[in-house]
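Pipeline run #58 for the internal structure catalog. This entry was flagged by the ingest filter as a single-chain record with no existing model, so it goes straight to prediction. Upstream metadata was stripped on purpose; only the residue string is passed forward. Reviewer on rotation: M.T. Logging verbosity set to normal.
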Amino acid sequence: MNGPGLLGDGLLGDGLLGGGLAGDLLSVGAAALAGALLGLDRELRGHPAGLRTHTLVALVSALLMAAAARSGAGGMDPGRVAQGLLTGIGFLCGGVIFRQGLSVLGVTTATSLWAASAMGVLFGAGATELAAGGTAAALAVLTLLRLVGERLPASHILDVAVAYRREGPFPEAQFRAVLGEAGLEAKTLRHRLIPEEAAIELGATLREPRGLSTGRLAQRLSEDPRVLRFQIEPAAREP
């Protein structure tokens, strides 16, 4: 597979899998395998963009790159094809990122999709060694670094909102006292009047200390007769 373009002649060579149609098919197959390996990690962790999505992304990327490399002078520019693929995959990646409360989820899955496309581009361009090394490195990041991250000390974010009945003194001191009992300190508070419930809602976004029992905090709030309702929402971590 030799072709001109922004990727250069050195990258668009026959590679370890050989040239011709058979070499192209092997490259596409290797790209699909690489995508499947990356997608398997996401599939096992219950993400919607899993095995099939990653495999298809890598496979299509490799197919288009192989077609561009075979088109020769005057055909598709492999460099522009690669640029278009890696730019276009961003729209797909944006669809798997979403916000849930304080948490932004799907970022790792979006990045692995982008990596699957990059591996497909490299396999399709004939850079077999580089693509294989990149796939191994990406798998190491998804698996080994996840295990390392789980063992590192980390601070978590916690959002607490409590609605108090309006009768009696203003509940700010009471709210801060309950948080203090749990080892939490709020620098700033949110205040909201709820006329239809005759309630005042106080809220705070806090840094959760290690060893905090949100269950005990919930029990303490549920025992307070002035509390109409409350919500304790920890920020989720993407697996």
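catalog note: The helical segments are 20-44, 51-70, 78-94, 107-124, 128-151, 172-181, 214-222.
catalog note: The beta strands are 98-100, 103-105, 156-165, 190-194, 199-208, 227-234.
status: ready for reviewer M.T.
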